[in-house]
Amino acid sequence: MRHLVAVLLLAWTAAAVLAGESGFVPLFNGRDLEGWVVAGNAEGFRVVEGCLHSDAGKGGEWIHTARPYANFVLRVEWMLSQVGNSGVFVRNGPNGGGFEVQLLAPWTPPRDDLHCTGSLYGHVPARPRPDETPLRWRKMEIVAAYKQVTVRVDGLRCVQANCDQVPTMKGLALAGYVGLQDAHAEPGEWVRFRNIEIKDLDQDPQFVCSGLLGADPVIRRGAYEAAVALGAPMVEPLLELARGEAQPRQVAELALGRIAARASAPGAAAEAARVREVLLRHLEQGQGNGRPDLACAARLLGTVGQGDERTARVLQRSLLAGGTLAQAALQAMQAIPGRPITQALLAALPRVEPGRQPALLLALGARRDEAALPTLGRLAREKAGAVQAAAVRALGLLGSGRAVPVLEQVGAGAPDALRQAVVEALIVLLDSRGLEQEARLRALAAARSLAVTPAQKRALL
Amino acid sequence: MGGMTRRRFLGGAALGLLEVGLGLPLASRRAGAVSPSEKIVVAHVGVGGMGKAHVSWFASFPDVETAAVCDVDRAQAAAALARLRELRPETRAVMETDFRRLLERPDIDVITCATPDHWHALVAMLAFQAGKHVYGEKPLCYDLAEGQAMLKACRRYRRLFQLGTQIHGGENYHRVVELVRSGVLGTIHTVRLWKEGGETGAGFPLDGEPPATLDWEMLLGPAPWRPYNPALCPFSFRYFWDYSAGMFGDFWCHVADLPFWALELGAPVTVSANGSDPLEHMVTTPPFMDAEFEFPNLKLYWSSRVPEVQGAQGRGLGIQFVGRRGELVADYEWRALFIDGKQYDDLPEVPVTLPRSPGHQRQFLDCVKSGGQPESNIEHAVRMTLPMHLASISYRLGRKLQWDEVGGKFVGDEAANRLRHRPYRAPWSLPT
Q: B130 and A264 in contact by Cβ < 8 A?
């Protein structure tokens, strides 16, 4: 497991490098404070020359993003006055809970490594210490990836920490606001920020997978929620996890179930189409009847699938593959309405071994599509044994008045066991919703004349 | 045929023919087919867990003859037979592993069922079809379509059904119903139900070979096939959606029984449920769940946590009725009324109107003899179980749903409607 996590994180890092600057979203528009919330005096922060500006002594405490972030890469440029003190807050709330990456102009007396620029203030020292010469634009990059925190100042990596290995950081929030501290020393001091941008790592499917695979239950829960929120882009990576060990498979299957459920909501047609597309492609490209991911994809189609030609073709192929995949496909085919699915089931019938035919017949009956009637009728008349019995039951399930004459014909003069099955089917038909009165009367008469057991006779009085 | 007497064979076979021949009017053809002086022949399906209690409960009645104990695990069946022989040394009961053999025996009048939930409906419906009455463990069934199919089959085959909510038969529930119905609380506008817990510690044990005594294929039955895993049985099947609906589905009927009985509630109009998916164990049902139902004139809440209401503290399971004039809080054995700031455990001015039950199993057997309806009959059971399934679907889809009781479907939600039934695995099919 640990190996897999390492590989995934590596893959994620490599992918992130390849992706270059993609995925970054500006947090500051250079004009106003749109997207920011000022805690304390609102005048503490203002826009000056396209920069976010704070003067010491004006109040304002800190300014934070409108929504919380859990895992991200934050890039920010800042400049401090001759003397100055500010900071960048990570995963912070109104009452704290997060930590601060320190921004400092040289201080007298000099601050230690634990409280200088780039340090996780009071938690992790900056080593090496970055240059603090003031009145220059500087760049900071903060990567907060679950419990790993990395800080770079002007390209120099000065912090690389694991929260679990820093006693004072244990139990800190794993999600919260990104914030900027005011200039908070002497009047006349100031701080400016510009080019503030963030990449939300919880939008990156590979990153989310690494969280799902980790050992930490809190991280796993957060990654699970991120996966469900991401939806369609997570489907393929989750299907890959569903091929793995028991716990990742469990988590992946539950997350996939949630994604399909959300996509199935009324009004989520576009997301449903995206999820369907991934599922169909996964099934089209996958081979083998013992793969849990394929069975899972087929099951999910039962929730979001449509009864179109492509879905019918894909599910039919899965059905013919056998094993648990076939079982999941058949279940989906029973749930999804639409003529193409009926036709796919009918076409699959002669292609599966006789032992599996009853399952297909029962599914055809339960789907209540009259297009199955001629085939079911023919098999009920011509076959024997389990196939015949299933065809008879399916005719009862079909809920169509047109099944009555067929059942009459099969029951007439039949041995007791078959006759009993025909009567059971007629009784199911009698009690089915929406059967016309004429058909009902004919079914009742037929069932009465064919009834075998005392229970059947009592039921038909 | 070993346990069958000539009398019963003739009686069972002749009865149907006689009825058909004479075309007796409906009223005289009461559901019961056993005269008061006769023995009732009972067979038990599923005799581990709750089934153990079934065997000893029914063996304790002198007018019951136990014909068979059946379990997909031979070891369970053998153990049940051994216990039965201690209770009733004269018993001629046999041991079976396939319940369908019991249904072929015309001497058996009653089937009791204590299988895992996903088998409840099939066992009952096939028993009705074979002319047997059924005492069935709760929950009633696995999904919505099964409940409807059971109702149809029970009526069609004119059989009796008692849901095994044995608390229903107790004095406390009867008295609570009288108190609520008396109007002392005023119009009831809110009902709260709760049962703590649902956490399990299954972990992720490896799949393996089933024990030699267990027919794993039969245990799975209509549920999707999967390899044997020790985390699934004997009892913990309950924590997997493939077979049950978790702690919620297990206890819903015990506590929902009371408001559905007292207020004769119909179906809810909306349902909304939420909880937390289990990521740390191979179980799939949530460790906790909250649900909210809107009925035409009432709101009903379910929670896995004890609500902060008067009288609920320290009660891991309970029911609260809130009326315009007062409240009543109850659990299985206890109740309290809160009216005008005072607490009462009873109000003597509320008359005793409901006939008391001689005990849930006895009451059912009396009905088998008299043809009357058991207290937890199929109509009541279907009505009170339906919201449990609605909430399970709402939980699984993660959204509020609207229910159309007349049409038997959700309003404008195709995916929810697909979840009304989980298709059976062949050779099983749901007759509906």
A: no
